Amino acid sequence: MLPSQSTLSSRFVLGCIAALSLVTIFNVGFTWYNIVVLKQLMPTQRDYTYIGDDWPAQLPLRLPEVGLVLESGDDHFSLYDDEEWGTLFPSEGFTDLGPRNRTFLLSMIHQMHCLDVIRVGFVTNRTGAAHHIEHCLRYLRQMVLCYADTTLEDDMPAILDGKWEHGSSGVGSVHRCRDWTVLRKYLLEYPASDYVPE
């Protein structure tokens, strides 16, 4: 005797439920396995002694991402405004960390300092600053490569030497940035102590 149509339908439905259950169990197991593996890859929070090379590579301060719209900036940071450029360096960029107050320079301030050195070198045209300017140009080149900003800036073609060329001012582009004002507040609150030779 052949099975009835309803018996075949019931078996088919049960087979589908069993197959879906097995796939679900497999997916849950696979997801759990991936979570375990990813947790092992995540850096663990640890305490540093700040002795020798035992210190973190980054300042342990969370900087939220913010948007930055580039502006022409013609009213600020002129080549000759030493006072305004000086506002970029709270505590000269140095801060003390760890139980023994080990002093560190924050890379962002070093980068800003290098921009300022290039500005001063350009304004004063001092040949004695050439070595410092070269250092800063090399340093900033590497930092630009490090952060590899992929923000798209609108093409603004212009005629250069009688020929149309691609160009961009970057003005109006929104960049995904870390909130540097948090870092500035930190430096104002935790400046480095004065250097005392040993």
UniProtKB/TrEMBL annotation:
Keywords: Membrane, Oxidoreductase, Transmembrane, Transmembrane helix. It holds the Pfam family UstYa. The keyword Cytoplasm does not apply. GO terms for molecular function: oxidoreductase activity. It comes from the Eukaryota. Pathway: Mycotoxin biosynthesis. One of its GO terms (biological process) is mycotoxin biosynthetic process. The keyword Membrane applies. The chain crosses the membrane at residues 12-36. Belongs to the ustYa family. This is Oxidase ustYa. It comes from Ceriporiopsis subvermispora (strain B).
